[in-house]
Design a protein that fits this description.
416 residues; globular; mainly alpha; Formate dehydrogenase/DMSO reductase fold; single chain
Length: 416
Amino acid sequence: MQQRIFPALIVLALAGLVIGSYGMFDRLVNGLQPVAFGSYVPWGLWVSFYLFFLGLSAGAFLVTILTYLLGIKILEGIGPLSGFMVLVCLFCEMLFILLDLGYMSRAFYQFFLTPSFTSLLTWMFLLFNAMGIIYTLKTYFLIRGDIITKAPDKKGIVGLVYRLLSFGKSQYSKEMEESDRHRVHILAWISLPVGLLFYATNGAFFAVLINRPIWNSAMTPLLFVVAALLSGGALVAFLTFVYVKNGNGLRDNLVKYLGRAVLFLLCTFLALEAMQLFVGYQTGRTDIITSLNHIIKGPTWWIFWIGHLGIGSFIPLILLVFLANNPNAVAAACFLIFGTFLSVRYNFIIPDQAVYKLEGLEFVFRHARLSTDYVPNLNEWLVSIWIMSAGLLAFLLGTRYLPIANANFGGMNHAS
């Protein structure tokens, strides 16, 4: 990353933490009282952001699988970056879903004391923690060689961190490198079923809810996986353009390679989305049609037509099809895809809750918490800004002071 961009992003992240601190303080002190969601719309902006970061982690997850399990050499230069990105996204996911809970403390003891293995929520919790452990170890073993060899040259707090992570090692031999390669390969094997189950379970969690007609579909887990790979893959391609040095044109080739994969995923996702809309309208069911109408021509129609289809799909399609050999255009297309993908997640979460499931229910009880007219309020946005800023700061510091952004293609780093 260029020197002039890094300080600006650090200032942006710190400003976000300051701006969002009031919302975070309000949430921690007053619980869920300050939020806009309620009994009929129990999941709002924070769950949408949870799914957004879930998707971003999936693209990075795929890159690590392709690199360290299937051995696709061209992706080795962004392997450590992808592994670290998974960790940062998991961190943001955890914060969003914890703050969405009424009693956050339950997440720290309920699943351990009274786990229910017939509950998808329990499995989501277990798989989430498994992903965190696996990718912490995987990222560490990918960068351990650089940490050990560069530790003597580092000073201050950074040097202390390097020495602590070296665990007393001062030399990184060929045998240690081979051992780390073997460990990463084993972790890649383990992460494959764990990761696929984790992302599919999140989709299945919504699919089994019978009273939510759009969610309650066998297509939902598939849509979740494809959407996750699309948004995450777009982010990986953009970060590759930003972080990887363009020695011998390797960065440009890698960005174009990833761009072709993103184009395929974008077309696949749009086709699945079109089928979901077509089948939904063909059912003739009032609840399904009303929910779909909320997406297509409801109060937030612009999120679907302008945010998702216009900026997030149509423009990237043009760039990826007609300017596929231009890495700048590919990076711009990928930025637009992942940058607007919150619109997809928001349109998945809110519309199916915006319809009263019993006719006339809105006239029985009247209260601000008993309404389907949900609009995220200031507190929800401030908390979201704080979490995203924390994630951005963690990512910037990690890629700046740890050997995460590896531009040396050809595998893991080691002493020459």
